[in-house]
Amino acid sequence: MKNLILIGMPGTGKSAVGKTLAQRLGYTFLDVDDVINERTGKTLKELLMEMGVDDFVVLEGKVGESLNLESTVIATGGSMVLSHNAMEHLLENGVGIWLETPLREIEGRMPQDLWDRGIAAPRDMTIREIYREREPLYAKYADMIVASREGEDATAHQVEQVMRTVGLSLKS
Description:
alpha/beta; Rossmann fold; 5-stranded parallel sheet; 14% strand
């Protein structure tokens, strides 16, 4: 069975929606940030401080490339789209779903120091600049775009409805 690959900005609810969607579909749920934490024994913030953004993005991409799963809802890190090879690998057996959230909502959810949240971007970049940089990549890798709604269950339900409407089957 095909995977569902959730992409989008930090703060869009990929993890929360992913867990709910996996439960609704009887799928497994995997958060790539958790995999990175388990493999390194470090938080995203610690890794960013030690490695810097560029090396972190390489590490995140390698983790993405290493995943070979079926029937799994995968919540990617917001910067996974910066790794072309990882995204191509994930989409070989997956449907890319961009959880699109208005920038003003994302800004309201983010801390002052984005590195506290483990966001892979240069320290002087604003959330608006990160959004502008990544938006074309989210669009490139998305098989479908779903407006992130208030509440995980509502967004998960909307993902299911859009999939049915466009005839996306989860069967390989």
